[in-house]
Specification:
By secondary structure, the protein is mostly helical. It has helices spanning about 1-5, 10-30, 30-60, 70-100. The termini are far apart.
């Protein structure tokens, strides 16, 4: 985790988001369980980013040459991060809408 934090800007941003989500989730969430869910959604993004970083570092270790298949693998890892971000965003938006009384 320390190496990933030092070497990857995305990891630092997501750790910051996780730390920020801890107090904010308690204000946004209508229930304690919803607050836990919101924090877990942000933690899930961090987990997927760590896995993506591991894939990218391993791929770069195999070869620094342009390889079409390795490029696709890296793109799939990035897509997984994107999906995790969309999921987390949806959870937060729904929680905010719920808190405002629209759900």
């Amino acid at each position: 985790m320390a190496f990933a934090f030092r070497s990857e800007q995305a990891i630092r941003e997501e750790v910051f988001a996780l730390i920020l989500s801890l107090p904010v989730a308690w204000f946004v969430a209508a229930t304690a369980m919803r607050a836990v869910e919101l924090v877990c959604a942000v933690a899930f993004v961090l987990v997927v980013e760590l896995l993506n970083t591991a894939i990218e570092k391993l791929a770069d270790r195999l070869t620094m040459d342009r390889d079409k298949q390795i490029g696709r693998v890296k793109d799939m890892g990035s897509a997984a991060v994107g999906v995790a971000l969309l999921m987390a965003g949806a959870f937060w938006i729904i929680a905010i809408i719920e808190r405002l009384g629209f759900l």
